[in-house]
Design goal:
Rossmann fold, N-(1-d-carboxylethyl)-l-norvaline Dehydrogenase, domain 2, alpha/beta
């Protein structure tokens, strides 16, 4: 099938590369000239394992290309797959108008009866709005709009896209179902078909539920820290309950760092407010999560006291392992706080991520994790890069001597066995 993928950030570049890898004729479209030029050189906009290889293979095979030319990209396309990131400000308020503007620029060039499959993160009701725009401006085209929630997972995006546990798609008619089923037949036949509004709402509900699960277990963990219970043992108890189950999103650890979860929670809050509904549970998720973001800060102060002049090592800066993005990174938020407290900050990250300009003269970056420990009073495990688990406790002891280690997710729990390391994690008392 001939497909145009609109929006070539993380989701779009993954979508385009994966669709080409299963044999579709794919054109990636974006108004950002630099992004297009880099993708033509098989350089994705963000680090994602093997994505560059997949794109290179598609380009060489001849069924993957990238352009700024809307007419060239849209002409002959059976499906326009909308994958634009929805910009979000620091308060998790989404700029949905950006996506509407970008899609509207392409509509004039689409063939009659083209399916527009939207995966951008937009509030429920957005497909109805797209349909109204199309009917008003291009009634003769008979464009079909559908919705499929994105399931992008940084560092695992290719595997998740090509081997999903299921795909959710909202459609208006049987014909669209047949075409989109054909589009995905090289990936999965486990598709949950529903109406468009249900699919839009499902994305909100999933992310809100995951966010609620995280905040719930972290509130339980905070109580555990004060009464001598181990939150990880409580987690096992919860997951042994058949009404909850082993796959439940209940692992005590760091707060979620905004992004998709927070965006959908804000969408639901806004929808509730506009319909004069009180949704106190949904509103409380954000408040609880914001409070838990301060866990490391509280622990650092309780153990080290005044941080002014204290050297703190930080392992990991990126939002997640396997990526190079710092956007929404809790590690970055924490480093900013350490800077403001007067601490000496030494960081390590395996990626090639660029440090914020505001860190100049405040943050030192080292080539190896162990170098960051020289003279440090504390170590924070901020991003769970696998490399950090491979570091021997003995090597840490030899470099740092006595050291306080703060590990929200109990990622390097072997450090707790050392007689000279004071180890702190979420859900366990000091």
């Amino acid at each position: 099938m001939k497909v145009c993928v609109l929006g070539l950030s993380h989701l779009g570049s993954v979508t385009a590369g994966c669709l080409a890898s299963i044999g579709h004729d794919v054109t990636g479209l974006d108004s950002d000239t630099k992004s297009v030029e880099k993708l033509r050189e098989a350089t994705p906009p963000i680090m994602e394992p093997n994505l560059d290889v997949l794109i290179q293979e598609g380009i060489q095979f001849g069924n993957l290309r990238f352009t700024n030319d809307k007419k060239l990209a849209a002409t002959g396309a059976e499906v326009l797959w909308v994958t634009h990131d929805t910009p979000v400000d620091e308060d998790d308020q989404a700029d949905v108008e950006f996506v509407f503007k970008e899609v509207s620029k392409v509509l004039p060039f689409l063939e009659n009866d083209t399916i527009v499959l939207v995966s951008s993160q937009l509030p429920v009701g957005s497909i109805k709005r797209f349909e109204a725009i199309a009917v008003e401006k291009y009634p003769e085209k008979n464009l079909h709009f559908s919705y499929s929630p994105e399931n992008l997972r940084l560092g695992k995006a290719l595997d998740v896209f090509l081997h999903p546990d299921r795909v959710i798609i909202g459609v208006r008619c049987q014909g669209d179902r047949e075409i989109l089923g054909k589009l995905l037949e090289g990936i999965t036949d486990n598709i949950f078909w529903m109406n468009v509004e249900s699919a839009e709402m499902t994305k909100h509900a999933i992310n809100a539920f995951l966010g609620m699960s995280i905040t719930f277990i972290n509130e339980i963990a905070s109580i555990c820290e004060n009464i001598g219970a181990d939150a990880y043992e409580v987690e096992m108890g919860l997951k042994s309950e058949t009404r909850i189950g082993p796959a439940a999103y209940l692992s005590p650890g760091a707060a979620f760092a905004g992004g998709t979860l927070a965006r959908d929670i804000e969408f639901l809050k806004d929808i509730g407010s506009s319909n004069k509904l009180l949704n106190p549970l949904i509103a409380a998720v954000r408040k609880s999560n914001d409070e838990h973001k301060k866990w490391i800060q509280r622990r650092l102060v309780s153990v080290l006291g005044d941080l002014n002049g204290k050297r703190v090592a930080v392992w990991g800066l990126t939002y997640k392992p396997g990526t190079s993005t710092l956007r929404r990174s809790l590690s970055v938020e924490m480093c900013n706080w350490l800077r403001d407290e007067g601490a000496e900050i030494v960081v390590h990250d395996p990626s090639k991520c660029k440090l914020p300009d505001s860190w100049r003269d405040h943050v030192v970056r080292t080539e190896t994790p162990l170098e960051a420990l020289e003279g440090a009073s504390a170590l924070v495990i901020a991003t769970q890069w696998p490399e950090y688990r491979e570091i021997a406790v003995q090597d840490v002891e030899n470099v740092a001597g006595r050291l306080a280690v703060f590990d929200s997710n109990r990622f390097v729990s072997d450090f707790n066995k050392s007689p000279v390391i004071s180890y702190f994690s979420v859900g366990v008392g000091a």
